[in-house]
Amino acid sequence: MLKIAICDDEAAAVSVEKNILREDLVARGLSAEITGYTDAETLEDVIKAGSHYDLLLLDIDMPRKDGIELGTELHELLQDTLLIYVSGRPERVFDSFKARPFRFIRKPMLEQEWPIIWQDVEKELKRRQASFFVFTSKSNQIRMKSEAIAYVEALRKKQILHTEKEEYELNDGFESVAAELEGFGFIRIHRSYIVNYRFIHSINRTDVELDDGTILPIGRSKHQAVSQEFHRLVQRELSKA
Predict the structure, then answer these.
(1) Percentage of residues in the chain having pLDDT higher than 90
(2) Are 103 and 148 in a shared domain?
(3) Residue 194, CB-side half-sphere exposure with 13 Å CA sphere
(4) By C-alpha distance, which of 191, 198, 195 is closest to 233?
(5) Cβ count within 10 A of residue 200
């Protein structure tokens, strides 16, 4: 489900924008949780507290803190959020570039322009979501960039996901996790380990050493296949440079 936030100091504008988006998305067979805010400070507090939105529609002219100031301040926290300015002040479009928005929509034209903008939004969301892994740990659903995951291990009856700083016990089975991560640059080095090639420091005959010194075993017959896959992934990355 899409999570969308709309922020405009006029409650009536928030209501109109919510209805336009909801009606269009429903017509497309999509569901969305759309939350409205009438001041930038409240939205800022919610985002800083950890709330995530796929899409954020911001007005520009708001009292105390305007949308450009808010978007600029939250730029680091909004890396995974598409920011769209919806404003009746088209002359401020160049000012809005400070926050690196995805699009700028003229407020009076939202109903006409939104269906066109949505096509670009949908493509970009799909592109971004393709690099994320969503998993459930205990009672929490967590969304994480695949590049941040170092490795996943099956430890007796538990599946443990490791990042550089944290560990998460997964609710899903190891095989389903391995299958989902396969296209994200992970290598099956052992029946109980899948490793992100980006964290591999060296590959030896019996084990793999990660950048932080962690040693993980290689399956008896997997050394050659692991080495070949590692080099293939490295070359693929180099070709993008």
Answers:
(1) 54
(2) no
(3) 23
(4) 198
(5) 21
When mean pLDDT is compared across 17-21, 44-48, 120-124, 181-185, the lowest value belongs to 181-185
Question: d(Cα 191, Cα 33) in Å, to the nearest integer?
Answer: 40
Q: Express each pLDDT in 59-97 by its tens digit.
A: 998 988 889 999 988 887 777 789 999 988 888 888 888
Retrieve residue 148's tokens.
């941040």
Q: Where are the alpha helices (DSSP H) in 64-213?
A: 67-73, 110-129, 174-181
**With 0-12 CB in 10 A as exposed, 13-18 as middle and 19+ as buried, what is 57?**
buried
Encoded amino acid at 35, one letter: T
Spell out the residues 6+ positions from residue 165 whose beta carbon is closer than 8 angstroms to its own.
none
Q: Which of 111, 113, 159 is nearest to 136 (CA)?
A: 159
CA distance linking residue 129 with residue 3, whole number of Å: 13
| Domain match, 99 and 151 both | no
Residues 20 and 41 in one domain: yes
The structural domain count of the chain equals 2
Lookup: tokens for 85: 């300015």
Query: How far is it between the farthest Cα atoms of the chain?
Result: 67
> Which residue range is the domain that position 195 belongs to?
132-240
Q: Please check the confidence at residue 159 and state whether its pLDDT lies above 90.
A: yes
